[in-house]
Amino acid sequence: MNYNHFVMKVMAVTAILVAGIASVVPAAPKVRWVSYKSNLLNLQVSVPGDWNPAKIPNALAFRYDDLAGGTAAIGILKSAQIKNISEAADKEFQLEGHPADWTRHDARVGGMRAIKIAGTDAKNPDYRMVHYYVETPNAIYMVQCQGTADRWSTFGPVFAAILRKLTFF
Question: Whole-model pTM?
């Protein structure tokens, strides 16, 4: 192997190494989850450790404020009034004057049948919301997720993770 060929190989390997180093991104900090159990509501949920519990009678609710000015919140309550999740979701979805971007879909929450309504918050266009009507063998629940619209791409996956960790008993 002549010198020029050797130098070309070294330069190629160096270029590959430099490109690899430039693309190394530090890992995101590992999220610490905290579990909350409510015997009154017959459920357990885990939320990121930096989400603050709210003191709301007959509900589990949590709030998060990020450094970029975004806010997210989730609340879970058991309903004594709702008897049919389809009728309840239809009633909310048919509210006069709701934002045009609302969607309604079948879903699953904590492994249970649910109906999901999502879109811009009707009271504040700077927020997005997702409401779930969840049917369990023992009760019907309402799960409400709300967050700053400009931070929804960050909050949405967190809400999804919380919902995967929600269990009813």
Answer: 0.81
DSSP annotation of 154 reads: H
- For the record, the structure tokens of 72 come out as 């997210």
Per DSSP (E only), the strands in the chain are 33-38, 43-48, 52-54, 59-65, 71-79, 103-109, 112-120, 127-135, 140-148, 167-168
Contacts for 74 with CB less than 8 Å, ≥ 6 apart:
47, 51, 61, 62, 143, 144, 145, 146, 159, 162
What b/e sequence results for 33-42 when a residue is b if at least 16 CB atoms lie within 10 Å of its CB, and e otherwise?
eeeeeeeebe
Query: Are 134 and 110 within 8 A, CB to CB?
Result: yes
Place of tokens 């999740």: 85
Q: What are phi and psi of 141, to 5 degrees?
A: -120, 155
User: Could you tell me which of 71, 80, 143 has the C-alpha nearest to residue 107?
Assistant: 143
**Tally of CB atoms within 10 A around 60:** 23
Q: What pLDDT digit, counting tens, does each position of 1-37 carry?
A: 543 333 334 333 333 333 343 334 445 668 899 999 9
How far apart are the C-alpha atoms of 92 and 89, rounded to whole Å? 5
